[in-house]
Design brief:
Helices cover 9% and strands 52% of the residues. The chain contains two helices and 14 strands, in the order αββββαββββββββββ. About 8% of the residues have low confidence.
């Protein structure tokens, strides 16, 4: 059974095959393109459709092309290269850094729990409290990370990391704290 066709997800890490450019030739009787339908698979494996109403004249001699805007993608990468790493010290025992699709929390405290919220996508991490500080918020210019809110609670403190879209993420323990990778 093909998981791409039925929307089933697995624990396999899929090899990414990005769209660059595809074409379709229409029959010699075609004169107008009425609409364009694209069927896509969401992060959760479900299948959806978008319909673009066109109602435009066409010349059947030339193929219809579909491509992803690779030029803008390169511009975004270039912009991120200018500022690929950011380090913020919250206090003497707590800091975080951002590099591309990684968010690293520097702490000696233990991760109590982690979970995700959607719409907008947020990763929430609660840590055992061994530090004292005022709650803080940081607006970020490092996509996919948009904002970080660090809240001080009675028995724990919380990192809420807002992302610019839906992502899979993995949290791993490091020598200096915890690392969150998003894809």
């Amino acid at each position: 059974m093909d998981s791409k066709k039925n929307g089933v997800t697995t624990n396999e890490v899929p090899k990414k095959d990005f769209l660059s450019k595809e074409s379709i030739n229409l029959p010699n009787s075609a004169r107008k393109i009425k609409s364009f339908v694209i069927e896509y698979q969401n992060l959760d494996g479900s299948i959806d459709r978008k319909i673009l109403k066109l109602d435009k004249d066409i010349d059947w001699h030339f193929p219809i092309l579909i491509s992803q805007d690779v030029e803008n993608k390169d511009e975004i990468k270039e912009e991120n290269k200018k500022s690929t790493e950011k380090y913020i010290k919250v206090n003497d025992s707590l800091a975080f850094s951002i590099e591309k699709n990684s968010f690293e929390i520097f702490t000696k405290d233990t991760l109590l729990r982690e979970f995700a919220l959607t719409d907008p996508m947020k990763i929430v991490c609660d840590f055992q409290k061994n530090t004292q500080f005022n709650s803080k918020s940081y607006k970020l210019q490092f996509l996919p990370f948009k904002e970080v809110i660090i809240g001080n609670h009675t028995d724990f403190y919380r990192f809420v990391i807002e992302l610019d879209g839906q992502y899979r993420y993995k949290i791993s323990k490091t020598d200096y704290g915890y690392k969150i990778n998003v894809e």
